[in-house]
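Before the break, one more example. Copy the sequence into your notebook; we will annotate it together after we see the structure.
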Amino acid sequence: MAGVSSVPLAAPNPSWFSPKILLTMFCIINMLTYIDRGTIASNGVNGSSRTCTESGTCTSGSGIQGDFDLSNFEDGVLSSAFMVGLLISSPVFATLAKSFNPFRLIGFGLSVWTFAVIGCGFSFNFWSITVCRMLVGVGEASFISLAAPFIDDNAPAAQKSAWLAIFYMCIPTGYAMGYVYGGLVGSNLNWRYAFWGEAILMFPFAVLGFVMKPLQLKGFAPIQSKEAPSDIETTSCETEDVEVKDGKIAMKDECNGKCSSISSRLIGSNYWDHLSRFAKDTRVLLSNKVYVVNALGSIAYNFVLGAYSYWGPKAGYNIYNMTDADLIFGGITIVCGIVGTLAGGYILDLISSTITNAFKLLSVATFLGAIFCFSAFCFKSMYPFLAFFAVGELLVFATQAPVNYINLQCVKPNMRPLSMAIATVALHVFGDVPSSPLVGVLQDYVNNWRETALILTAILFPAAGFWFIGTFLPSVDRFDEETEPDTSPTHESSTIPLLEEKTTTEATESIT
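Here is what the structure looks like once it is written out:
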């Protein structure tokens, strides 16, 4: 007699949605956000400033820098402007994930990102494009904080680092594609079209975040109006009856009233609760030695990579007279980024994914990468430079999966969004946000791109040192720890991640 599953049958839409489809979708979104960063740094979009010779002959410049007559410092500020919105909004989205469905928050963020990028194309001076870049950061914040925990929930246990590596591989790949994309569009059309093209590509994903059945994160209870305090009026979207069959995800979504609508009374009464919860959770993170040491290494690491990504093509053009600096740096970064990032994730899974092993991999890869990158800028010939720099980038990019594995595994499940958000804030505030303008100031002072590149690359050595210290710290993988309820036991999530739900469903069917 055929058994009947104890899991209720779900609506067929979206029956096509599987964990691998989720990973693919997040990878495309991640790549688009970093294509945008590479685009604004490309010579085709960023352009060159106005110059005058001793004889009095002046050129008007090109791209954003030429159109708006920007100094190197202003140009560096522009590259980092989106970080302002990202840094302010990341902790906000991470905290709101306890009150709103994280999947809907991602949809909202991507909508803001799309409209902000359109605004960049219509900007008319330095301040207008700077404001739009800040809004780009606001839109990106929701995705940065919440995407990795979703992947962590749904990746096979033996392949968590590999799945994270695939996701973070999109960072160097996106940057590199942005160099190429911005160079081609800026040279053949106009730099404004590059931003409008990005908006067109992101728009379908922003819509999907609202129309698709929302997923739930491990450690978070489904937002249900019946569990809310009686003195607060709210109607929200309840997601239940999840079924995974043949690798497909299907969810039955029941909404009372308008999905995720909240009265002004809710916002007012819960404001201080959200703030105190954020402060409490932040103190917990900052008292975690493993988390702090990992963050210090990430700050030094991203200080270098942030400046590399923005000033790299321009430095290569000036040091080695690269006529196609965008294409050369883009090509090297694509190949080394893909191979290095994937290799880092697969090696960590191979040697056993633990926090201590992740620190070992981080320290060794970064130290060797620093040696190769530093040596590369010592060569006067372009070809030895390209060979050594490629090897250095290959090693440096191997850190992407391990560093985020530590951020996700050293905290309890319901702390993961905030862990990612605070890590993002730290590495940007002290890392790549100040690095671009500071390197611009350094270059204005020394007026020698080779010296500037060598000074910058040397900062990778302290990064390796911080991660080496992490290998001696006692650490525990906390992914399977029970989440402490915020107010009452009803707030503790019993939601099972998608792949585990599949296993549970199949086991129940076989028994019945």
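The mean pLDDT is 77. Residues 228 and 234 are 8 Å apart (CA to CA). Try to locate both features in your own notes.
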